[in-house]
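User: Show me a protein chain along with its predicted structure.
Assistant: Here is one chain, sequence first, then structure tokens.
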Amino acid sequence: MPRLDANRLAASLTHVAFVRRIVVLETTGSTNDDARRLAAEGAPEGTVVLAERQSAGRGRLGRNWDSPERVGLYLSVLLRPTEPPERIGRYPIAAAVAVCTACRTFVGDGAVLKWPNDVLADGGKLAGVLSELRQGVSGAELVLGIGVNVNQAGEDFEAALRGTATSLRRLRRGVPVDRESVAATLLEALGATIALLRAGAWLQVAEQFLRYAPDATGRRVRLAAGGGGFTDGLDASGALRVATANGIVLVHASESVALAEE
């Protein structure tokens, strides 16, 4: 597969003011770690780090993110949010909306969201977002790590993932997808959803999330802490609301829920 080219990608994003700097690495441990290092060096918001391969890619809840060379999209975006801490949880929701929007551009509306930020299609995991917040010298530094399975064939996935993961190529019946096009589409969508957040349009972002996430309302779930209830949309902080016998419980991205047996 062709190598990603930072200059070519930047040229396709000249209309997206949000993107300020693009770095492409041949191999790295984790693009999130690279973005945090650049943040400490003073990199501007809108710095994007992409890698052809990650040796230590990670997902939510301490899971690994399989990152085979030159077939997937592995990128991290640096943000410097100025909102109160209780509103920063909105950013991963905005990112999830952007990633799902981008995936739908290539495979249609069969791509859906699983709270908080996994993209699923045809029963397999297609993409995911990992957000990591740190307090830097000049304020909050939020890194959004995004992984999209683009051109993986079945044998490109680790054996343990072959029954649970999918890719844009597999969903398109083996037709390959240009990774730079996916990256450009995703970053354009991310810039738009972040702009909505910062314009005070959280409700619009949340409504879009709920349109993409069929299980975020009215589905019976089990809580990791025990008990369960029915999903009831999103809280103003970006947390998932679960209506239980004892009232509303908020589930944050650092926690998990599971669909209960029907």
